[in-house]
Amino acid sequence: MDKITVTKDALLAKLKENRNTHEQVYKDAVEKYKEAIVFYLKKALARAEKGKKVNHYISVVEPTNNLKDYDRVIGMLEMSTQTTIQLDSNEYSQYVLDDWNWKDTFSNSSGLYGAGRFGYSGYTGSAGSASVSGISSSSEDEELGSVFQANDINLQD
Question: Which of 2, 111, 23 is nearest to 74 (CA)?
Fold first, then answer.
């Protein structure tokens, strides 16, 4: 099938739903990213205070934000006077199935922090609940430390 025709309202609703999911996954990943940076810096400070070697380069992937792609398409549709819209298979994949050309990169960067770890289709919650305020529990260390292990950063004493 080369093209399909959909109602503008149905397409707008689906795009807005996909945008909201993307925004939530992104926000959750950014929070976990910030926690990971603080976690690393606290660990590095502790190592420095003990006189141990500290890696001065933080190699942590920042989550990517692709909301502008949703906003552009939503804006175009909202301004359109048409009541039905034709979609080709590529547009259908992006707008309805939420399978954009950047999705793998987004899923990988947000997945490092637990947000949408298996892609974000059907995402239902926050990126996780670990807190690093005191870096007190080993499960927090393991969860945030895994971000640095994935990026080849050694935090061992």
Answer: 23
